[in-house]
Design a protein that fits this description.
Strand order of the largest sheet: 1-2-3-4-5
Radius of gyration: 19 Å
Number of strands: 5
Helix content: 40-55%
Distance between the termini: 63 Å
Largest sheet: 5 strands, parallel
Number of helices: 8
Strand content: 15-25%
Number of domains: 2
Structural class: alpha/beta
Order of helices and strands: HHHEHEHEHEHEH
Length: 173
């Protein structure tokens, strides 16, 4: 029996969609046919963004076409490109992602950590924050003060990896 992808039930298609990055999902299925277009537009399916391989122009198109109208659906965002990190925080759009649970920021400068942390505290469902620094954070006092000033039930699981890597590397020398 030969089965085509289009013959699958909506529930099964939604399960497959859960494994895809939001950008790839829209690129592959949004203009395929009216059924898939409707599945994407009228879905409550949680979305994920991984911008690590996105160019500035691709992100701008994705932002205008998908992100702005689906802010309420994003559960995970991974930001790597310095332009995209800057844009997301300067535009204050990130504060509107009220379902965001996991935020990963790669290649962040330590001087930007305080400003970014201050803007994240408005996210009601943020449970996991991973920051990979591009340099060494000399004074972690401000970071810890900001994180632990949150109400107890709002302190996200936080991972900052650059310090550990640098300390381990310098101790091996």
């Amino acid at each position: 029996m030969l089965t085509h992808f289009e013959d699958l039930s909506n529930d099964l298609i939604y399960e497959i969609f859960e494994f895809l990055n939001g950008y790839d999902l829209y690129e592959a299925f949004s203009n395929l046919n009216s059924r898939f277009e409707n599945l994407l537009i009228h879905s409550i399916l949680p979305l994920k963004i991984d911008t690590s391989l996105m160019s500035k122009s691709t992100f701008q198109r994705y932002y205008n076409d998908i992100i702005k109208r689906n802010k309420h659906r994003f559960k995970l965002i991974c930001l790597s490109n310095p332009f995209i990190v800057s844009f997301m925080f300067k535009s204050r759009i990130l504060s509107k992602f009220d379902q965001l649970e996991t935020l990963i920021i790669n290649n962040l400068k330590s001087k930007d950590v305080e400003n970014i942390l201050k803007r994240l505290f408005v996210l009601p469902r943020l449970f996991s924050l991973s920051i990979i620094l591009d340099d060494y954070m000399r004074d972690t006092t401000v970071f810890y003060r900001l994180v632990f000033s949150l109400p107890r039930d709002r302190i996200p699981t936080v991972l900052i990896t650059a310090q550990l890597k640098i300390r381990l590397n310098s101790s091996l020398s």
